[in-house]
Write a structure and sequence with these properties.
Rossmann fold, two-stranded parallel ribbon, 8 helices, 9 strands
């Protein structure tokens, strides 16, 4: 299917969709490092610009719109002003793109906290907005470890389709492939050690790209990115947020001696080893932390192809 990608970042979501056989016809991000990374690894159909400068009319038509929008302006949960809240500009752009382009489907990704903002009023309004734009949508809380990603990363995936499409064309979340215990015919969650133990010591000479790490001291306390990492469990969530000083706080390596390298973090987010990140180290960490895991994105892309291949797409 042809896909419009909004707030594309380094392209984790897009790469997985392309690996499944879909085509990105237009993409956008404001971060110059992320756009350079995208162009070198995913494709040239990305525009480096602030969405305030983008006219929706110039975006090509597509079968699907995808993207993750920030939710800062939802915290007040004023159900009747969310589209007008300036802090929700990116959400509004996503909404307006869907409303004007009328793709058959859309996929929106967000943090788990969006479900509880305003005691649940924010997500109610979001679904109401999508309904008014002509779509029925489902909200899915996903643990990426359940899909073979070596990371207990929980994200909300909103899947939408035009209200006029047949119920047989329902875009649904694919079945889980993994579980914590590996029972019921599923594979056991993949541990961080399984994912990254193949990499050489980054303090020794090597030719692994992006295999450098933050020197931020590993000190354990009960706080995000400061807890011990269990080698036999999936990684904690790879972060894109600051550590209090403005930088990204990389997860401690399970050896307890250092933090994860950029390459190790990327591997946990299931980027291939030949995917090169551009920018300073902190920017690379941030690009990875903001990304949708490639493996999960490919599974979503395969679901889109399933609908297409079965001849159900008949707009």
């Amino acid at each position: 299917m042809k896909i419009i990608s909004l707030f594309s970042g380094a392209g984790g979501l897009d790469l997985g969709l392309v690996q499944a056989g879909n085509e990105i016809v237009w993409a956008n991000d404001i971060d110059k490092d992320a756009v350079e990374t995208y162009r070198h690894n995913v494709g040239n159909n990305i525009v480096l610009d602030d969405i305030k400068n983008v006219e929706i009319s110039i975006i090509p038509n597509a079968d699907v719109v995808v993207g993750g929008f920030p939710c800062q302006g939802f915290s007040q949960a004023n159900r009747f002003r969310m589209l007008n809240d300036e802090r929700n500009m990116l959400y509004r752009f996503f909404y307006e793109t869907i409303k004007q382009k009328q793709p058959n489907f859309f996929i929106a990704e967000n943090v788990k906290g969006i479900l509880t903002l305003g005691h649940g009023e924010a997500i109610k309004q979001i679904l109401s907005d999508f309904e008014n734009a002509g779509y029925r949508a489902t909200v899915n809380l996903v643990n990426m470890a359940d899909y073979g990603v070596p990371e207990t990363r929980q994200r909300v995936i909103i899947l939408g389709q035009q209200q006029g499409l047949s119920s047989k064309m329902l875009l649904t979340l694919p079945p889980k492939t993994h579980s914590k215990t590996g029972t019921d015919g599923l594979h056991k969650w993949i541990s961080i050690k399984q994912a990254i133990s193949r990499y050489p010591d980054p303090d020794m000479p090597n030719n692994v790209p992006n295999h450098e790490y933050s020197k931020y001291k590993v000190e354990y306390r009960d706080y995000t990115a400061h807890r011990p990492t269990d080698a036999n469990k999936p990684s904690p969530t790879i972060l894109a947020r600051g550590n209090g000083g403005g930088g990204v706080c990389a997860i401690p390596h399970y050896n307890g001696l250092r933090r994860l390298t950029v390459r190790e973090s990327a591997s946990i987010q299931t980027f291939p080893d030949d995917f090169i990140f551009y920018g300073v180290r902190g920017s690379c960490y941030r690009q990875i932390g903001n990304a949708v895991p490639v493996r999960f994105a490919k599974i979503l892309g395969q679901e889109l192809r399933r609908i297409e291949k079965e001849g159900l797409l008949c707009k």
